[in-house]
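1st attempt posting a full record on here, be nice pls
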Amino acid sequence: MTDTDRAERLSRELDAAFRNRADLYRLFYDTLATRLGTVEAEALMVEAVEQRGREVAASAFAGFGPNDARALGEAFLAVSPDGGRLYPTDVERDERSIAFKVHRCPLKDAWVEAGLDGEALATMCRIAGAFDRGLFEATGVRFANVTWVPGHGDGCCHIFLQDRDAGEGGGPAGRNQTRPEEAMNVRIAQEDLEKAACLALRRAVFIDEQGVAAALEIDGLDDESTHVLAASGGTPIGAARFRIVGDAVKIQRVCVSQDFRGHGVGAKIIGFIVEHARQNRLARFARLGAQTHALDFYRKLGFEVIGPEYLDAGIPHRDMQLAL
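the predicted structure (as tokens):
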């Protein structure tokens, strides 16, 4: 057997091992769901898989700290199975962050071949994604992970890593030396790294801080939405998305990093979207679902309440509208 033949055989065996792992995930989940229900089954699977991620971090990435996001990401790529061929990935880098967009995953391939689709497939991807969360968060870096959901296309997960201090404003004391509103820039997120930064902010605010379920926050509409990023001194501090729905620009997922609230960031983001919509004649109205505690904030920006109170992800909301 030649070295080439041996390498090809080992590659096939490695792929089969990952598919076997996928089948074990699926069977464990099915057994737990039958006995305990789907919610408890997913929670237990996530807990176990995330713990395994932390164990791997302790043994393989113990030398990396909270401000080593770029180096950690490069080390992770360097040990990607089969030289990265099992998980073909697009990568974007800057000085203090790195983002991965995975195009193929042998686990997802195995689940699709087993007949999973829709929410069943999304559930398995969330469970598998817990490994990455356990691994990367164990080092202290800022982490966001968007796993596959219906409407996400043929790709797989997107991962974003950022230095911990970068998420807090940077500088020797972990804070910007200028006020954020003085150095703020609001723009359409064009590159994958910028879009990943938006998703990281949303995860921090909605999932980690407000307790919104990941399956509700990552709803499959991101690919058809335009994402807006606010940054101060190169640090992502706020985000939102919008899309055209009927006669309106629907504004969603408006969020500001906890460290930068009270500086007009949210107002700048809304103002940017409204002005962009007006200049490009996108629609007749701007509409949004406002959390009830933020109604006065949006009223000051010209929005009016147009509907009764309702719950979204368990949080009271009311719809609001602004004529464009």
